[in-house]
Amino acid sequence: MGGWLSYLWWGGDPDVVNPISGLTRREIYAVQRSWALVHKDSTANGIELLKRLFRAYPETKEFFKMVRKLPEEEYERNFQFKAHVINLMSSLDQAVKTLDQPEIVIEMMLKIGDSHRKRKLQEQHFYDLKDVLVKMLIEVLKPDSSTLGAWAKTVDFWYKHIFVSLSGTDGR
User: Fold this and answer.
1) Cα 115 to Cα 38: distance, rounded to the nearest angstrom
2) Cα 32–107–35 angle (5° rounding)?
3) Is pTM, for the whole model, over 0.85?
4) Where are the alpha helices (DSSP H) in 17-144?
5) 88 close to 139: Cβ distance less than 8 angstroms
């Protein structure tokens, strides 16, 4: 689309970078559009994400006392685990839906960092999750390079603020 029609469609220039999030309207749209496919079956996709995390990084399973000693095929029957998955996927959903309001996303990420600092998680654990998430997105959604790049920028934006409170340097 060109000119004024594109401007009307996007509510402004779709390629102007938001100074807070580092994302453009076009990138936000790509992330939201691809996330909608994942969110259609968020619980099953969240369980699969964590299964893949535990397979790739077995030490991360230790943070989940409710499944720590369970075989993988029993995870889905554990209500505490399913509740955690639902919380995880709901948080991701809200973080994606509100990308056009980066100040809200920042506050959400600071709370996530706080919560996970209390559980002694480190930045590397989040990078491990990112690795698994990106591989899963590539495998399942087969995104184009611009969508994949938008996801990388989005997760980096989230992690920047999670890491501030994870390290305890935000004054919380």
Assistant:
1) 25
2) 15
3) yes
4) 25-39, 42-56, 79-97, 102-118, 123-141
5) no
